[in-house]
Amino acid sequence: MSITGRATAVAHPNIALAKYWGKRRFGHNLPAVPSLSVTLAGLSTLTTVEFDDTLTADELHLGGRPAAPGPLARVTGLLDRVRAATGRREHARVVSHNDFPTAAGLASSASAFAALAFAASAATGLSTAPDAVSDLARRTSVSAARSAYGGFVALRAGEPADEVLPATPIAPEDHWPLRVIIAVTAEGPKDVGSSEGMKHTVDTSPYFPAWVDDAPALYARIHAAVLARDIAALGAAAEASALRMHASAIAADPGLLYWTGPTVAVLTEVRRLRARGTPAFFTIDAGPHVKVFTLPEAEAEVTATLLQIPGVLRTISAKPGGGARLDGG
């Protein structure tokens, strides 16, 4: 073994309050709509990148096992960009581990590619400034652009002239002590990945153009609510963003239904909680799990309620966290 560059980075997933779903058709992996997220402490991806001039191909190990060809190809795509920018030719060994379910609708690709972009950049001497890491990660996974930063983060929709498009932080992690409680309703990866599901929605859903037209107004409402720390306003707009995103996917041909029975049961219970005066609101990514955001004083009540719902296997509690960084940094 002849290691020519090595670094380990950690990054956290983010939960989109204003949803991203769908890419522009003019390339460069650009989002079709603006999005706004909060990066989550309490869940993390740890990734080590070793460039080794004895390797004949890139290697990827996820959770202690060799990765399938699909994930490896995406990792190689990012590493190829790093090699092109640095003039290096060595292949790399990538070892990555999530401490939360992978490929299950919990934004594991966001933290994974943010950590990979940071570690690969550090290992080769590229800039590890957040905007550079964000843009590099975005070229493989749009949502990963937001996990380069901590706190509350925005990413505008792509425009035809864009080649460089990093996310933008709008408020630090201590801006607002939201609590995000994830109701885990299934174990294992989802049947249709987000990238595949988005492309299918763009290509076949008659509701997708309406989603693209409508999303900017919801984004503006969510942006204002976050800055004002107005949970009622945030909750109303974030729930609308999630439901309209899923409506566009459900209307695809054939329709994409990421929800399960327990998913719907959680949505119903969150509305019951709110009717009783508890500040609880939901959002759902492309998967069966529900993320319920609330305030610290209601965290225990919301958690206890979710755990009583049949089909909720467990909950994960999180709060706003920091951006991608070197391990131990």
Q: How would you portray this structure in words?
A:
This protein has two domains: 3-173, Ribosomal Protein S5, domain 2; 179-320, GHMP kinase, C-terminal domain (Alpha-Beta Plaits, 2-Layer Sandwich), CATH 3.30.70.890. It has helices at residues 69-86, 108-124, 130-138, 144-147, 194-204, 208-228, 231-250, 261-275, 299-307, and strands spanning 3-11, 14-18, 35-41, 45-52, 59-62, 65-66, 91-98, 152-155, 168-171, 179-184, 280-283, 290-294, 314-320, 325-326. Helix 6 (208-228) runs antiparallel to helix 7 (231-250). The strands form two sheets. Strands 2, 3, 8, 9, 10, 11, 12 and 13 form an eight-stranded antiparallel sheet that branches. Strands 6-5-7-4-1-14 form a six-stranded mixed sheet, with helices on one face. It is built from nine helices and 14 strands. By secondary structure, it is of the alpha+beta class. Strand 11 and strand 12 form a beta hairpin. The chain is globular and about 60 Å long.
